[in-house]
Amino acid sequence: MAEKPTLHYFNGRGRMETIRWLLAAAGVEFEESFLESKDDLTKLQKDGSLLFQQVPMVEIDGMKMVQSRAIGNYIAAKYNLYGKDLKQRALIDMYVEALMDLNELLMAHSLQPADKKEQHLATIVDKATNRYFPVYEKVLKDHGQDFLVGNQFSRADVQLLETLLMAEECKPDLLAKFPLLQSFKARTSNMPTIKKFLQPGSQRKPPLQEKDLPKVKKIFY
């Protein structure tokens, strides 16, 4: 039996959360090795585990993979979440890259100082409702299928759901004008592997809060 993938990162979302989502959606059990201090990171750097001296790092199939996009691509391809052909893969990549852009904004929201939170939320609302969500709503409307690409569950669907839930954490009514995205969220949240990941006690991480920052900075700076 193959060893479970091991994820090396701090105990929080950051750039590892999307990787956790992909593995969970694929029904793959994984272990986590949390960085607790600067020494933990230095040890990985000195023993040659980190190709570019950075985490996230995932041990999988005898490799020590770094760079979150490369890790995501590998997991998606390995577990049949990456479309049926090159054109489908290109579509999935485009959808995922845009979601990553929005994700960066969403992740940063809880870390904003109090005097900048309102403006930051306004930026999120503007970009989510005018640039990003209308595209995914239109895709689902135009082809009338359950999933974004090729009527087959893919990493684009996994990451869209992750992003929709993060958006609602910032502003609960952010999907109000997007009925097909609401249906998509309900449908995909109920898929057995994802439903399990959304339960309390799973390896899904809560949003990073301002109070968590000192601990994270202690590891990386």
List the topology elements.
Layout: E1 6-9, H1 17-25, E2 31-34, H2 38-46, E3 57-60, E4 63-66, H3 68-78, H4 86-109, H5 114-143, H6 155-170, H7 179-189, H8 192-197, H9 213-220
Parallel strand pairs: 1-2
Antiparallel strand pairs: 1-3, 3-4
Walk me through this protein's architecture:
By secondary structure, the protein is an alpha+beta fold. The chain is built from nine helices and four strands; from the N terminus they run βαβαββααααααα. Strands 2-1-3-4 form a four-stranded mixed sheet, with helices on one face. α1 (17-25) links the parallel β1 (6-9) and β2. α1 packs parallel to α3, α1 (17-25) crosses α6 (155-170) and α4 (86-109) packs parallel to α6. The longest helix has 30 residues, at 114-143. It is globular, with a radius of gyration of 18 Å. The termini are far apart.
